[in-house]
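A reminder from the course coordinator: this example appears on the midterm review sheet, so study it carefully.

Given structure:
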């Protein structure tokens, strides 16, 4: 959802990079139901790329813009930065949970005949 928002915000005026970078995250979300590992990998890789792009470029855009510039553009950049940060936290929490489940399965496998 965050990738889609940032992609739409990119199309609406934040820059082409804001429209291209989220495509990896969106692709991962689309293929995850059929290919869980590949989907998770694409989601994590897309989140890293998107975070780099939004935090570095987005924050520089905010620093360079004047308050008298388009308020909508500044609002989109702020919303993108906030949503990407929340998405990153959610992805990290989910990965920690999944790795904990995998580790427990390896330590205590089911002993079914």
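Designed residues:
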């Amino acid at each position: 959802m965050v990738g889609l928002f940032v992609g739409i915000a990119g199309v609406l005026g934040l820059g082409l990079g804001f429209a291209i970078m989220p495509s990896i995250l969106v692709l991962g979300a689309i293929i995850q139901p059929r290919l869980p590992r590949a989907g998770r990998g694409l989601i994590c890789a897309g989140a890293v790329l998107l975070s780099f792009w939004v935090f570095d470029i987005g924050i520089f855009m905010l620093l360079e813009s004047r308050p008298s510039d388009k308020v909508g553009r500044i609002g989109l950049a702020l919303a993108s930065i906030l949503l990407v940060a929340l998405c990153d936290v959610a992805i990290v929490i989910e990965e920690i949970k999944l790795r904990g489940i995998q580790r427990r399965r390896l330590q205590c496998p089911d002993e079914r005949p």
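The chain has five helices and no strands. The chain has one domain: 2-107.
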